[in-house]
């Protein structure tokens, strides 16, 4: 009984953090039952995770944008346009992949700096700036693809970024991708070590920590989840390069937002920009960085999407920004700014991708899919507002 009460108290205090995990678990359980287990099959889970890669990357950048109480509506067509630029450089100019990727990412940074300059220096609302950007880059995409409509990318090295899997030099277990299992085990060990280290540091400075029984339950649950997903992926083709790239991006941004001065400044600006100014934070520089980061990740998203399709199309980027915004909000980003984690936004992207995959397996009509996803977004924001009101 005491354990149940402790668990209930922890969920109440950390409902924003754990609510999305509960929602994801419920969605996967329901769709697995309704699809007779097809939803949780190795092939479907692998395709689901790989297909959300380009949105997950966008969601990471969008998290920071929303945290500082701005918005970027241009990222979808920035991704589509820069994906087409990458395809053009590879096919028309025969540039190597190692040259194309840095060039495209650099262009993304320049686009973001321009957006950030208009927002931070000229004080133009981000909604207006990025709405204009959406129209401009949609036109630019149409211009780049005007001759053929679709630019086919025959470069296999580039395409492997979107459809390839990491090699398995070990091959110890027949039928399974051994390297994926090893990496999963190492990640579980790292997770357990980091949790103990974090708890020790909190106790050292007399911060509040969860009861030890709840702490162990949480570690076992998350470790099981990591192990199960790793097992499923290893039963198919293992980890894809898309997943590896997403994990690297999440690791970098998670470290930056939680362990660096820049990360603290970003959340300070989102919490109260006037107070941040008075405390000596250069709000304009923070804004410039966040917009540059967003467009750079949009460029990476465009590369992932183009590599996955092995071509650049006139419709690339359509709706990407809406999926990224929805993923961030479902993942716990506050509509009032100042609150949100990149790891949460990744879970939000997984929730939205799971909904789409599950509804496709059940042959739910496209019209109902849009309605359901919209309803989920509204519920996420209502939940955020109610949580903030209760905490006041």
How does this model look, in words?
The chain is globular. The chain has a two-stranded antiparallel sheet. Helices cover 75% and strands 2% of the residues. By secondary structure, the chain is an all-alpha fold. It comes from Proteiniclasticum aestuarii. It holds the Pfam family BPD_transp_2.
Topology:
Blueprint: H1 2-13, H2 15-34, H3 42-51, H4 53-67, H5 75-91, H6 97-120, H7 126-144, E1 150-152, H8 156-163, H9 178-204, H10 212-234, H11 241-259, H12 261-271, H13 273-278, H14 283-309, E2 311-313, H15 320-330, H16 342-361, H17 366-391
Low-confidence residue ranges: none
Physical arrangement of strands within the biggest beta sheet: 1-2
Proportion of residues in β-strands: under 5%
The rough form would be described as globular
Q: Could you tell me the radius of gyration in angstroms? A: 21 Å
Q: Whole-Å distance between the termini?
A: 30 Å
Total strands: the figure is 2
Task: Give the topology string: H per helix, E per strand.
Answer: HHHHHHHEHHHHHHHEHHH
Q: Sheet bearing the most strands, described? A: 2 strands, antiparallel
SS-derived structural category: mainly alpha
> Averaging pLDDT over every residue, what do you get?
90
Please estimate the helix content: over 70%
Instruction: Give the helix tally.
Output: 17
Distinctive features:
75% helix, mainly alpha, 392 residues
